[in-house]
Amino acid sequence: MPRRALRLFLLLLLLHLGPAWDPAAESFLHLPAPKSVMVYSYNFCSSLRWSPVEVDRGSVLYTVHFKTGAFNQWDEMNCTRITQTECNFPQLLNKRRWTIILRVRAELGQMVSDWVETDPFVAERNTTLGPPKVNSVTVSSDSLLISVTPPFGSELGEHLQYHVSYWENSTSTTKKETKTSNTLFKIRNLKEMTLYCFKVQVEFMIDPDLQILGLQSVPECYRTTVSEATRTGYIILIFLLTLFLVILVIVGLFLMWRYHNTIKYWSRPPFKIPSHFEEYLKDPSMPGLEALENCAEEEPCDSLSVVCDEERSQECDGNGETKADFHSSSSDSELT
């Protein structure tokens, strides 16, 4: 009852002062109204948010009321005289097809602000749908098997559809799209050993003429595997190449053994007769060869002196002929 008493007091004071009442004095009993009042809704979880009211001193409190399109009567929520600037919808108001209007005001002691109302809010039309969650991806040579979870739980009679866009991660940016209502689906007709990327978004089917598209998931990329036929082909090709190399080595070794004389002949440097022999063979009457033969018959002789002591004088005398021969040979050599 303090508020009613305060209002009654202010009314009596206004009547008592009459024309002397200053309207500016009424501003001391009012707070600025909250601003940026909006309903935020993500995957049908909604809340009312607003910007804080700035005052010099004291802590500002906030109160939120609601009413529906069916019952035009304001009622309190679970947000009365709170300090936060956000009020979550209670479970009662989390109805996707209800039309809800909210209002909020600021309070500080006996001072209050004006109410600020929101536009009518319908969750199934105004909520933001998040991307589905990709649980797993199974890769094969020509397809991707994808399992997803919807971003929110569906109610009876609601229909969800998934939009899948995928593309080959190469210089080409051409995207392909497919639609499905299953949470387990397969992207088919892909190239083997190729990197593919995909994104998924949910479509909420309200009625045939109204659909809400959600946010796309983060792109995920996977490389397809090699098919069994291609793997078998690679194995056969490697086997044939190995067999060909082995046969080539065996044939090469056999040819080397079979024609080793020919190879040995061709691998030696060519034999060449010296030019002076070649000239003599062409003309045997040339005197050059006789000079060469005479020169070859003359053996070079060297001078050799034998020195003997007294003990071996007899041996030296016994070898007199040898000494004489050496001396004679040496003399001949000196004369020459």
Write a concise synopsis of the structure shown.
The chain has 336 residues and is an alpha+beta fold.
Number of strands: 17
Query: What is the average of the pLDDT values?
Result: 79
Total count of helical runs of at least 4 residues: 8
Shape: elongated
Q: Nearest-angstrom radius of gyration?
A: 58 Å
Give a quick account of the main beta sheet: strands, pairing sense, barrel closure: 6 strands, antiparallel
Low-confidence stretches: 11-28, 319-336
Order of helices and strands: HEEEEEEEEEHEEEEEEEEHHHHHH
**What fraction, in percent, of the residue positions are helical?**
25-40%
Overall SS class: alpha+beta
* Percent of residues in beta strands: 25-35%
The first-to-last residue Cα distance is 162 Å
Descriptive report:
It contains eight helices and 17 strands. The protein has 336 residues and is an alpha+beta fold. The protein starts with a helix and ends with a helix. Helices cover 29% and strands 29% of the residues. The radius of gyration is 58 Å and the shape is elongated. It has helices spanning 2-17, 123-126, 228-258, 260-267, 275-282, 288-297, 313-318, 320-335, and strands spanning 35-42, 45-51, 61-68, 75-76, 86-88, 99-108, 111-112, 116-117, 121-122, 133-139, 144-149, 159-168, 175-180, 184-187, 195-207, 210-213, 220-223. Strands 3, 4, 6, 7, 8 and 9 form a six-stranded antiparallel sheet that branches. 10% of the residues are buried.
